[in-house]
Design brief:
Layout lengths: L10 E5 L7 H11 L2 E6 L12 E2 L5 H14 L4 E4 L5 H11 L6 H8 L1 H10 L7 E4 L16 E5 L9 E3 L2 H18 L7 E5 L4 E10 L2 E10 L12 E4 L5 H17 L5 E10 L2 E8 L9 H7 L3 H9 L12 E6 L6 E7 L1 H5 L4 E6 L6 E2 L10 E7 L2 H14 L1 E5 L8
Parallel strand pairs: 1-2, 1-4, 2-3
Antiparallel strand pairs: 5-8, 6-7, 6-8, 9-10, 9-12, 11-14, 12-13, 14-18, 15-17, 15-19, 16-18
Helix pairs in contact: 1-9, 2-3, 4-5
Protein backbone atom coordinates (compact mmCIF):
# COMPACT_ATOMS: atom_id res chain seq x y z
CA UNK A 1 0.00 0.00 0.00
CA UNK A 2 1.93 3.01 -1.26
CA UNK A 3 1.86 6.35 0.52
CA UNK A 4 1.22 4.80 3.98
CA UNK A 5 3.92 5.49 6.57
CA UNK A 6 5.38 2.66 8.63
CA UNK A 7 4.00 4.07 11.87
CA UNK A 8 0.48 4.58 10.51
CA UNK A 9 0.05 0.89 9.82
CA UNK A 10 -1.58 -1.28 12.51
CA UNK A 11 1.00 -3.20 14.53
CA UNK A 12 0.30 -6.78 15.61
CA UNK A 13 2.37 -8.91 17.96
CA UNK A 14 2.65 -12.57 16.97
CA UNK A 15 3.79 -14.98 19.69
CA UNK A 16 5.42 -18.05 18.14
CA UNK A 17 7.28 -20.98 19.68
CA UNK A 18 10.68 -21.84 18.24
CA UNK A 19 10.35 -23.37 14.76
CA UNK A 20 6.58 -22.87 14.54
CA UNK A 21 5.52 -23.74 10.99
CA UNK A 22 2.73 -21.15 11.18
CA UNK A 23 5.01 -18.12 11.47
CA UNK A 24 5.90 -17.79 7.78
CA UNK A 25 2.22 -17.86 6.76
CA UNK A 26 1.42 -15.05 9.17
CA UNK A 27 4.35 -12.99 7.87
CA UNK A 28 3.09 -13.38 4.28
CA UNK A 29 -0.46 -12.48 5.31
CA UNK A 30 0.72 -9.38 7.18
CA UNK A 31 2.63 -8.26 4.11
CA UNK A 32 -0.48 -8.71 1.94
CA UNK A 33 -2.57 -6.67 4.41
CA UNK A 34 0.14 -4.05 4.99
CA UNK A 35 0.19 -4.81 8.70
CA UNK A 36 3.34 -4.26 10.71
CA UNK A 37 3.96 -7.68 12.25
CA UNK A 38 6.34 -8.10 15.16
CA UNK A 39 7.24 -11.71 15.98
CA UNK A 40 8.17 -12.60 19.55
CA UNK A 41 9.76 -16.00 20.18
CA UNK A 42 12.20 -17.88 22.40
CA UNK A 43 14.71 -18.58 19.62
CA UNK A 44 18.31 -17.42 19.68
CA UNK A 45 17.49 -14.66 17.20
CA UNK A 46 14.27 -12.68 16.65
CA UNK A 47 12.02 -14.52 14.21
CA UNK A 48 11.01 -11.60 12.03
CA UNK A 49 11.69 -9.82 8.79
CA UNK A 50 11.77 -6.40 10.45
CA UNK A 51 14.37 -5.19 12.89
CA UNK A 52 12.14 -5.07 15.96
CA UNK A 53 11.48 -8.79 16.42
CA UNK A 54 11.57 -9.74 20.09
CA UNK A 55 13.64 -12.56 21.56
CA UNK A 56 11.72 -13.45 24.70
CA UNK A 57 13.52 -14.46 27.88
CA UNK A 58 12.96 -18.26 28.03
CA UNK A 59 13.68 -18.42 31.77
CA UNK A 60 11.34 -15.72 33.08
CA UNK A 61 7.69 -15.15 32.15
CA UNK A 62 7.69 -11.83 34.00
CA UNK A 63 10.74 -10.70 32.06
CA UNK A 64 9.03 -11.68 28.80
CA UNK A 65 6.00 -9.59 29.77
CA UNK A 66 8.26 -6.63 30.57
CA UNK A 67 10.00 -6.99 27.21
CA UNK A 68 6.70 -6.82 25.33
CA UNK A 69 5.45 -3.92 27.43
CA UNK A 70 8.63 -1.98 26.67
CA UNK A 71 8.17 -2.66 22.94
CA UNK A 72 4.56 -1.47 23.19
CA UNK A 73 5.74 1.74 24.81
CA UNK A 74 7.84 2.45 21.73
CA UNK A 75 4.96 1.69 19.35
CA UNK A 76 1.57 0.37 20.57
CA UNK A 77 0.18 -2.95 19.39
CA UNK A 78 -3.32 -3.20 17.96
CA UNK A 79 -3.62 -6.89 18.83
CA UNK A 80 -1.72 -9.92 20.13
CA UNK A 81 -2.00 -13.35 18.48
CA UNK A 82 -0.74 -16.78 19.52
CA UNK A 83 0.31 -19.17 16.77
CA UNK A 84 0.21 -22.37 18.86
CA UNK A 85 -1.11 -23.80 22.12
CA UNK A 86 2.27 -23.14 23.76
CA UNK A 87 1.81 -19.36 23.45
CA UNK A 88 -1.91 -19.04 24.25
CA UNK A 89 -1.37 -18.35 27.95
CA UNK A 90 1.31 -15.72 27.44
CA UNK A 91 -0.78 -14.00 24.76
CA UNK A 92 -3.65 -13.56 27.21
CA UNK A 93 -1.35 -12.17 29.91
CA UNK A 94 0.09 -9.66 27.46
CA UNK A 95 -3.40 -8.59 26.36
CA UNK A 96 -4.39 -8.05 29.99
CA UNK A 97 -1.31 -5.96 30.68
CA UNK A 98 -1.72 -3.88 27.50
CA UNK A 99 -5.53 -3.69 27.89
CA UNK A 100 -6.20 -5.31 24.53
CA UNK A 101 -9.19 -7.56 23.68
CA UNK A 102 -8.65 -11.17 24.76
CA UNK A 103 -10.31 -14.39 25.82
CA UNK A 104 -11.15 -15.20 29.42
CA UNK A 105 -9.17 -17.51 31.74
CA UNK A 106 -11.43 -20.50 31.07
CA UNK A 107 -10.76 -20.20 27.34
CA UNK A 108 -7.01 -20.12 27.97
CA UNK A 109 -7.05 -23.24 30.13
CA UNK A 110 -9.49 -25.14 27.91
CA UNK A 111 -7.24 -24.44 24.90
CA UNK A 112 -4.12 -26.00 26.38
CA UNK A 113 -5.40 -28.70 28.74
CA UNK A 114 -7.89 -31.37 27.67
CA UNK A 115 -9.02 -32.22 31.20
CA UNK A 116 -9.70 -28.53 31.95
CA UNK A 117 -11.85 -28.39 28.82
CA UNK A 118 -13.90 -31.38 30.00
CA UNK A 119 -14.18 -29.99 33.55
CA UNK A 120 -15.33 -26.55 32.36
CA UNK A 121 -17.94 -28.13 30.08
CA UNK A 122 -19.32 -30.13 33.01
CA UNK A 123 -19.30 -27.07 35.31
CA UNK A 124 -21.09 -24.94 32.72
CA UNK A 125 -23.75 -27.57 32.04
CA UNK A 126 -22.53 -28.32 28.51
CA UNK A 127 -22.80 -31.86 27.10
CA UNK A 128 -19.57 -33.75 27.73
CA UNK A 129 -18.64 -37.44 27.91
CA UNK A 130 -17.93 -39.11 31.24
CA UNK A 131 -14.25 -38.77 32.07
CA UNK A 132 -11.61 -39.28 34.72
CA UNK A 133 -8.01 -38.15 35.07
CA UNK A 134 -5.33 -40.62 36.13
CA UNK A 135 -2.80 -38.48 38.00
CA UNK A 136 0.91 -38.70 37.46
CA UNK A 137 2.72 -41.06 39.83
CA UNK A 138 -0.41 -42.74 41.19
CA UNK A 139 -1.27 -46.42 40.62
CA UNK A 140 -3.81 -46.69 37.83
CA UNK A 141 -5.56 -49.90 38.86
CA UNK A 142 -8.28 -48.42 41.09
CA UNK A 143 -9.17 -45.83 38.42
CA UNK A 144 -10.10 -48.65 36.03
CA UNK A 145 -13.18 -49.40 38.10
CA UNK A 146 -14.62 -45.94 37.32
CA UNK A 147 -14.21 -46.32 33.54
CA UNK A 148 -16.79 -47.68 31.11
CA UNK A 149 -15.62 -49.30 27.88
CA UNK A 150 -14.88 -48.55 25.14
CA UNK A 151 -12.95 -45.49 26.29
CA UNK A 152 -10.30 -43.18 24.90
CA UNK A 153 -7.03 -42.41 26.71
CA UNK A 154 -5.13 -39.27 25.77
CA UNK A 155 -2.37 -36.98 27.07
CA UNK A 156 -3.48 -33.60 28.39
CA UNK A 157 -1.45 -31.47 26.00
CA UNK A 158 -0.30 -33.11 22.74
CA UNK A 159 -2.13 -32.20 19.53
CA UNK A 160 -2.80 -33.81 16.11
CA UNK A 161 -4.28 -36.90 17.81
CA UNK A 162 -0.85 -37.97 19.02
CA UNK A 163 -1.04 -40.33 21.97
CA UNK A 164 -4.82 -40.80 21.59
CA UNK A 165 -5.77 -44.49 21.94
CA UNK A 166 -9.11 -46.30 22.07
CA UNK A 167 -9.31 -49.10 24.63
CA UNK A 168 -11.84 -51.93 24.85
CA UNK A 169 -10.97 -53.25 28.31
CA UNK A 170 -8.76 -52.79 31.39
CA UNK A 171 -5.79 -54.60 29.87
CA UNK A 172 -5.78 -52.35 26.79
CA UNK A 173 -6.17 -49.25 28.97
CA UNK A 174 -3.20 -50.27 31.13
CA UNK A 175 -1.01 -50.73 28.05
CA UNK A 176 -2.24 -47.45 26.54
CA UNK A 177 -1.40 -45.46 29.65
CA UNK A 178 2.14 -46.87 29.72
CA UNK A 179 2.52 -46.13 25.99
CA UNK A 180 1.31 -42.53 26.33
CA UNK A 181 3.65 -41.88 29.25
CA UNK A 182 6.61 -43.22 27.28
CA UNK A 183 5.71 -40.81 24.47
CA UNK A 184 5.44 -37.89 26.88
CA UNK A 185 8.79 -38.76 28.46
CA UNK A 186 10.44 -38.73 25.03
CA UNK A 187 8.61 -35.68 23.73
CA UNK A 188 8.14 -33.46 26.76
CA UNK A 189 10.14 -34.71 29.77
CA UNK A 190 8.75 -31.92 31.98
CA UNK A 191 5.13 -32.32 30.84
CA UNK A 192 2.33 -33.41 33.14
CA UNK A 193 2.14 -37.22 32.94
CA UNK A 194 -1.53 -37.30 33.96
CA UNK A 195 -3.78 -39.12 31.49
CA UNK A 196 -7.33 -38.18 30.52
CA UNK A 197 -9.62 -41.20 30.08
CA UNK A 198 -13.02 -40.43 28.62
CA UNK A 199 -16.06 -42.18 27.24
CA UNK A 200 -15.76 -43.04 23.54
CA UNK A 201 -18.16 -40.96 21.45
CA UNK A 202 -19.88 -42.48 18.43
CA UNK A 203 -20.48 -40.45 15.29
CA UNK A 204 -18.90 -38.78 12.28
CA UNK A 205 -16.17 -36.27 12.93
CA UNK A 206 -15.92 -32.67 11.70
CA UNK A 207 -13.63 -29.70 12.25
CA UNK A 208 -14.68 -26.05 12.43
CA UNK A 209 -12.63 -22.91 11.80
CA UNK A 210 -14.11 -19.67 13.11
CA UNK A 211 -13.13 -16.22 14.33
CA UNK A 212 -14.46 -14.16 17.21
CA UNK A 213 -14.71 -10.40 17.48
CA UNK A 214 -16.00 -8.93 20.75
CA UNK A 215 -17.79 -12.22 21.41
CA UNK A 216 -19.45 -12.41 17.99
CA UNK A 217 -18.64 -15.63 16.13
CA UNK A 218 -18.19 -16.09 12.37
CA UNK A 219 -17.65 -19.55 10.91
CA UNK A 220 -15.09 -19.56 8.11
CA UNK A 221 -15.23 -23.23 7.16
CA UNK A 222 -16.52 -26.60 8.32
CA UNK A 223 -14.42 -29.62 7.33
CA UNK A 224 -15.79 -33.11 6.93
CA UNK A 225 -13.58 -36.08 7.85
CA UNK A 226 -14.88 -38.88 5.63
CA UNK A 227 -12.78 -41.64 7.16
CA UNK A 228 -14.43 -43.41 10.12
CA UNK A 229 -12.57 -42.19 13.21
CA UNK A 230 -13.16 -45.32 15.29
CA UNK A 231 -9.64 -46.13 16.51
CA UNK A 232 -7.71 -47.71 17.99
CA UNK A 233 -5.62 -44.74 16.84
CA UNK A 234 -6.94 -41.49 15.42
CA UNK A 235 -4.50 -40.33 12.76
CA UNK A 236 -6.36 -37.80 10.65
CA UNK A 237 -6.11 -38.03 6.88
CA UNK A 238 -8.76 -36.30 4.73
CA UNK A 239 -10.57 -32.99 5.26
CA UNK A 240 -13.30 -31.85 2.83
CA UNK A 241 -15.17 -28.55 2.59
CA UNK A 242 -17.98 -27.66 2.22
CA UNK A 243 -19.11 -30.76 4.11
CA UNK A 244 -21.94 -33.04 3.04
CA UNK A 245 -24.32 -31.68 5.69
CA UNK A 246 -27.83 -30.29 5.40
CA UNK A 247 -28.35 -26.57 6.17
CA UNK A 248 -30.17 -27.43 9.40
CA UNK A 249 -27.14 -29.33 10.71
CA UNK A 250 -24.77 -26.51 9.75
CA UNK A 251 -26.98 -24.08 11.65
CA UNK A 252 -27.06 -26.44 14.64
CA UNK A 253 -23.25 -26.60 14.65
CA UNK A 254 -23.03 -22.80 14.70
CA UNK A 255 -25.65 -22.54 17.46
CA UNK A 256 -23.87 -25.08 19.67
CA UNK A 257 -20.46 -23.56 19.01
CA UNK A 258 -21.73 -20.15 20.10
CA UNK A 259 -23.02 -21.70 23.33
CA UNK A 260 -19.67 -23.36 24.05
CA UNK A 261 -17.65 -20.27 23.16
CA UNK A 262 -19.79 -18.06 25.38
CA UNK A 263 -19.74 -20.45 28.35
CA UNK A 264 -15.97 -20.97 28.14
CA UNK A 265 -15.15 -17.25 27.67
CA UNK A 266 -13.90 -17.39 24.09
CA UNK A 267 -14.36 -13.80 22.93
CA UNK A 268 -11.55 -12.84 20.57
CA UNK A 269 -9.43 -14.25 17.74
CA UNK A 270 -9.30 -17.64 16.01
CA UNK A 271 -11.33 -20.60 17.21
CA UNK A 272 -10.70 -24.22 16.22
CA UNK A 273 -13.19 -26.92 17.20
CA UNK A 274 -13.32 -30.70 16.75
CA UNK A 275 -16.81 -32.21 16.92
CA UNK A 276 -18.66 -35.49 16.52
CA UNK A 277 -22.23 -35.78 15.24
CA UNK A 278 -24.39 -38.79 16.06
CA UNK A 279 -28.00 -38.40 15.00
CA UNK A 280 -29.07 -35.00 16.31
CA UNK A 281 -26.38 -34.91 19.02
CA UNK A 282 -23.37 -32.62 18.54
CA UNK A 283 -20.46 -33.38 20.88
CA UNK A 284 -17.32 -31.28 21.23
CA UNK A 285 -14.01 -33.13 21.41
CA UNK A 286 -11.86 -30.00 21.55
CA UNK A 287 -12.13 -26.21 21.34
CA UNK A 288 -8.97 -24.09 21.14
CA UNK A 289 -8.02 -20.46 20.56
CA UNK A 290 -5.80 -21.13 17.54
CA UNK A 291 -6.13 -22.14 13.90
CA UNK A 292 -6.15 -25.66 12.49
CA UNK A 293 -2.82 -27.49 12.41
CA UNK A 294 -0.64 -28.54 9.53
CA UNK A 295 -1.26 -27.03 6.11
CA UNK A 296 -4.98 -27.74 6.16
CA UNK A 297 -5.76 -24.03 6.45
CA UNK A 298 -4.60 -23.67 2.84
CA UNK A 299 -7.97 -25.09 1.80
CA UNK A 300 -9.62 -21.99 3.32
CA UNK A 301 -7.86 -19.87 0.70
CA UNK A 302 -9.18 -22.11 -2.10
CA UNK A 303 -12.70 -21.80 -0.66
CA UNK A 304 -12.84 -18.08 0.22
CA UNK A 305 -10.04 -16.40 -1.70
CA UNK A 306 -8.27 -15.38 1.52
CA UNK A 307 -5.83 -17.44 3.56
CA UNK A 308 -6.74 -18.44 7.10
CA UNK A 309 -3.97 -16.16 8.42
CA UNK A 310 -5.43 -13.22 6.48
CA UNK A 311 -8.81 -13.91 8.09
CA UNK A 312 -7.23 -13.93 11.55
CA UNK A 313 -5.06 -10.83 11.06
CA UNK A 314 -7.82 -8.81 9.38
CA UNK A 315 -10.15 -9.69 12.23
CA UNK A 316 -7.53 -8.64 14.79
CA UNK A 317 -7.19 -5.14 13.29
CA UNK A 318 -10.93 -4.86 12.57
CA UNK A 319 -10.75 -4.96 8.81
CA UNK A 320 -13.61 -6.55 6.86
CA UNK A 321 -13.08 -9.58 4.64
CA UNK A 322 -15.08 -9.97 1.47
CA UNK A 323 -14.93 -13.72 0.76
CA UNK A 324 -15.49 -15.05 -2.74
CA UNK A 325 -17.01 -18.47 -2.17
CA UNK A 326 -15.63 -20.55 -5.02
CA UNK A 327 -17.91 -23.14 -6.61
CA UNK A 328 -17.35 -26.81 -5.96
CA UNK A 329 -15.56 -28.47 -3.06
CA UNK A 330 -11.98 -28.72 -1.88
CA UNK A 331 -10.02 -31.32 0.00
CA UNK A 332 -6.71 -31.97 1.66
CA UNK A 333 -5.07 -35.24 2.63
CA UNK A 334 -2.47 -35.28 5.36
CA UNK A 335 -0.47 -38.13 3.88
CA UNK A 336 -0.49 -40.98 6.41
CA UNK A 337 2.76 -42.49 7.67
CA UNK A 338 2.69 -45.94 5.98
CA UNK A 339 5.17 -47.76 8.21
CA UNK A 340 7.95 -47.13 10.69
CA UNK A 341 11.44 -46.86 9.24
CA UNK A 342 14.01 -44.61 7.62
CA UNK A 343 12.91 -43.09 4.32
CA UNK A 344 14.89 -44.06 1.26
CA UNK A 345 12.72 -42.47 -1.43
CA UNK A 346 9.15 -41.56 -2.43
CA UNK A 347 7.96 -42.92 -5.77
CA UNK A 348 4.96 -41.89 -7.86
CA UNK A 349 4.88 -38.15 -7.07
CA UNK A 350 4.59 -37.13 -10.74
CA UNK A 351 1.78 -39.64 -11.33
CA UNK A 352 -0.05 -38.37 -8.25
CA UNK A 353 0.17 -34.79 -9.50
CA UNK A 354 -1.39 -35.80 -12.83
CA UNK A 355 -4.53 -37.24 -11.22
CA UNK A 356 -7.61 -35.35 -12.38
CA UNK A 357 -8.80 -32.93 -9.69
CA UNK A 358 -5.49 -32.76 -7.83
CA UNK A 359 -4.33 -29.19 -7.20
CA UNK A 360 -0.93 -30.03 -5.72
CA UNK A 361 1.12 -32.76 -4.06
CA UNK A 362 3.60 -31.50 -1.48
CA UNK A 363 5.99 -34.12 -0.09
CA UNK A 364 8.05 -32.74 2.78
CA UNK A 365 10.05 -35.76 3.97
CA UNK A 366 13.57 -36.36 2.70
CA UNK A 367 15.85 -39.34 2.37
CA UNK A 368 17.20 -40.42 5.73
CA UNK A 369 14.29 -39.01 7.72
CA UNK A 370 12.73 -41.29 10.31
CA UNK A 371 9.02 -42.07 9.83
CA UNK A 372 6.88 -42.96 12.84
CA UNK A 373 3.22 -44.03 12.58
CA UNK A 374 0.51 -42.84 14.98
CA UNK A 375 -0.15 -42.66 17.88
CA UNK A 376 3.49 -41.63 18.46
CA UNK A 377 3.87 -40.25 14.95
CA UNK A 378 4.43 -36.85 13.51
CA UNK A 379 4.91 -34.87 11.43
CA UNK A 380 2.95 -35.91 8.36
CA UNK A 381 5.12 -36.79 5.33
CA UNK A 382 3.27 -34.26 3.20
CA UNK A 383 -0.06 -33.03 1.86
CA UNK A 384 -2.28 -33.55 -1.21
CA UNK A 385 -4.81 -30.88 -2.23
CA UNK A 386 -7.77 -31.37 -4.55
CA UNK A 387 -10.78 -29.67 -6.08
CA UNK A 388 -13.98 -31.21 -7.41
CA UNK A 389 -17.54 -30.44 -8.38
CA UNK A 390 -18.58 -31.75 -4.98
CA UNK A 391 -17.03 -33.27 -1.86
CA UNK A 392 -17.23 -36.79 -3.27
CA UNK A 393 -15.24 -35.84 -6.36
CA UNK A 394 -12.62 -33.99 -4.28
CA UNK A 395 -12.31 -37.04 -2.01
CA UNK A 396 -11.86 -39.47 -4.92
CA UNK A 397 -9.05 -37.34 -6.35
CA UNK A 398 -7.20 -37.39 -3.03
CA UNK A 399 -7.49 -41.15 -2.67
CA UNK A 400 -6.43 -41.77 -6.28
CA UNK A 401 -3.37 -39.56 -5.89
CA UNK A 402 -2.44 -41.26 -2.64
CA UNK A 403 -2.61 -44.66 -4.34
CA UNK A 404 0.17 -43.53 -6.69
CA UNK A 405 2.59 -42.75 -3.84
CA UNK A 406 5.02 -45.39 -2.61
CA UNK A 407 7.19 -44.73 0.44
CA UNK A 408 10.28 -46.92 0.32
CA UNK A 409 11.79 -47.33 3.79
CA UNK A 410 14.55 -49.25 5.53
CA UNK A 411 14.45 -50.54 9.10
CA UNK A 412 15.50 -48.07 11.78
CA UNK A 413 18.36 -50.04 13.30
CA UNK A 414 20.01 -48.96 16.53
CA UNK A 415 23.77 -48.60 16.20
CA UNK A 416 25.96 -49.49 19.15
CA UNK A 417 29.29 -47.67 19.28
CA UNK A 418 32.08 -49.41 21.22
Amino acid sequence: MTGVSRLSRPRVLLLAPDRSYRTASYIRAADDLDIHLTVASWGRAPLALNSDGIRLDPDSRESALDQVQEAATQAPFSAVLATDDATVGLAREICERLQLPSNGPRARDASINKSDFRRFCREQGLPTPAFTVIPEGEPSSHFYETVSYPCVAKPLSLSASRGVIRCENKSELSKAIARIRRLLTQEKPDADQSILVEEYLEGREYSVEAILRDGSLTIIAIFEKPDPMTGPFFEEAIYLTPPRLCPETVLAIETELVKVATALEFREGPLHAEIRISGDAISFIEVASRTIGGRCGKVVEFLTGASLEIWVLANAVRRPIQPRHAPGAFGVMMIPVPTAGVLRRVEGISKARRVNGVVSVEVDVREGQKLTPWPEGGPYPGFIFSRGADAGEAERALRAAHEELVFVTAPDLAVEVR
